[in-house]
Design goal:
The protein is α+β, with helices and mostly antiparallel strands and 212 residues long. It has one domain: Gcn5-related N-acetyltransferase (GNAT) (Aminopeptidase). It is 37% helix and 23% strand. It is built from 7 helices and 7 strands, in the order βααββααβαβαβαβ. The chain has a 7-stranded mixed β-sheet with strand order 1-2-3-4-5-7-6. β4, α5 and β5 form a beta-alpha-beta unit.
């Protein structure tokens, strides 16, 4: 474990381009068809990041070396439909939204949905993914969520192994052979992990929505 790593909630101001770079490195093949080319996709992600929908790992000098995004209260880490239409225009934006809809997962009541983990390749193997998952679990518990849900693609067995080590169990697998050539994966498995309730934890109403 890298003792120089600090885990914090939120995306630090000024780190938007760095987070977008990490996110694109991890998910660019999947997002490229909808948000590409790469430079434009990274710029879109940086411009529309929701700072309060992630936990980040900071290395020496405060450099972001890992990020885990999540959805809650109707908002995720990256931009929404209106942002896509604004940046790409209606004619180019609508087909892109159709592709993004294939990846969309809406949280159910009491559920926090993860958008995935991205770790700087130079820092992989140092336990950063585990630290980010632990903090995501703490975020879910603090806001009264009873479980965490995520999707993992068949082309990323390393991520699935990480999630399994942290108590996630596989549920439904959706076969998507029509996406293999376009987005690089042919199946998506939904995984869940229960979140133990904290005594006196949670807030009234929808606490994650209150973070807006």
């Amino acid at each position: 474990m890298d003792t120089a790593i600090t885990i914090t909630r939120g995306v630090p101001r000024g780190a938007e381009e760095r987070v977008a770079e990490l996110y694109w490195e991890a998910f660019g093949r999947k997002l490229g068809a909808a948000l590409g080319p790469a430079a434009r996709g990274r710029a879109f992600l940086a411009r529309h990041l929701r700072h309060d929908r992630a936990v980040t790992a900071l290395g020496p000098g405060g450099l972001v070396v890992g990020v885990a995004g999540y959805q809650a209260g109707g908002r995720g880490l990256t931009g929404g439909a209106g942002d896509v239409l604004s940046d790409y225009g209606v004619l180019r934006g609508l087909p892109r939204l159709a592709l993004l809809a294939l990846l969309e997962r809406t949280p159910r009541p009491g559920e926090l949905v993860m958008d995935g983990i991205a770790v700087d390749p130079a820092h992989r193997g140092a336990g950063i993914g585990s630290l980010l998952l632990a903090e995501i679990a703490a975020v879910a518990a603090d806001h009264g969520c009873s479980r965490i849900r995520l999707d993992v693609i068949d082309a990323n067995p390393r991520a699935r192994a990480l999630y399994e080590r942290h108590g996630f169990t596989a549920g439904h697998t959706e076969r998507t052979p029509y996406l293999r050539g376009l987005m690089g994966f042919g199946a998506v498995t939904t995984m869940h992990r229960a979140v133990p309730a904290r005594p006196g934890g949670g807030a009234s109403g929808d606490p994650l929505e209150q973070q807006r």
